[in-house]
Target: Regulatory protein PchR
Amino acid sequence: MSVNIFPGDLRIGVIDEVLHAKPRPSAGPIEPKFQVMVLISGLQRFFIDDQQFYLDATHTPKAIIMRLSHPAQLQYDIACGAPYRKVALATPLKWLGQLSSRGNSAMTNLNSSDSKISHKIWSPNAEIVRLATQILAPPPQNSIAQTELFRMSRGLELLRRALTILPESQAEPTRDAHPISERIRLYVLENLENDLSLPQIEMDLGMNRRSIQRHFKNGTGSTLSDFIRHQRLTRARRALSEDGMSISQAAYLAGYSSPENFSVAFQHAFGLAPQRLRNGSI
Model:
C-alpha cells in the first residue's frame, strides 16, 4: 500500500492491484488511532489482538470506521482480490478529540467509548464509494502537489460523510433502545438506494408488514413510510447543496418521478424550495 502523510498526521493509503492470498505475516504492533477504510473490491480479514474483522467486497463495497484507544497487536490474515482496491484514512486520536470537542455528537460518542476498539462495518453509499475512487485514481492535475491536495480534500470529505452515517444512537445504541425497531431503522439507512417497498422489507427482514410497522412506530414514534421519505429527502438535500445535483436528479434520488411533487415535499420538510438550496451550492 502506498501511504501519504498530510498536515495533522492525516494518513491516506491506497492500493489498486491484483492481490493473491499469501501466508499471513507475523503480528505487529499498532498504535492508537482513528481510521476509516473503504474496500471497493476484494476480500480482507485481520485481527486486532483477539478480535476479528472481516470485509467481503467481492460483490459490493464495504467500509469500516474504527477507533483504537490502546496499543494492540495487528495480524493480517487474508487480503486478496482481482483487483484488490482499498483506501484507508487514519489520524491520531487527538485529531478525533479536537473535532469531538466542537460538538459533533457522533464523533464525541465514538471518542468517549470505554471499549478498546469501537467500530462499525457497513456498506458505503455511492457518494463514499465515489470519493474513495477519486482518492484511488485522482483526475490529472498540473503538479504532484495539486494531486496530493486533491487527495487530501477528498479524504477529508470522505471522513465527514462517513461520520454522517453514524448518528449518535447508531454509533452507540442505548441499552433501552427497542431492538426490533432499531434493526428496522438501520436496515432502512443502509438501503436508501434500494427498493424499500413493504414486500421487499418483509422478505429481507423475515417479518410481516403489520409487525414491521407496529414495532417501528412503537420504537421510534414515526411511521416507517414517513421515516423513509424524510431520510431520502435529507439525502437529496445533501446532493443539492454539496454536489450541485439538478432538481430532476435529486427528485429521482429521493424516489419521486415528478420534480414538481419533489419540490412540494422538499418545501414542506425543510421550509425552503430546492432551487434556493441548489443556487447556494458551490
Remarks:
- Confidence is low (pLDDT under 50) at residues 168-177.
- The chain has two domains: 2-170, 176-279.
- Residues 2-170 form a domain with the Jelly Rolls fold (CATH 2.60.120.10).
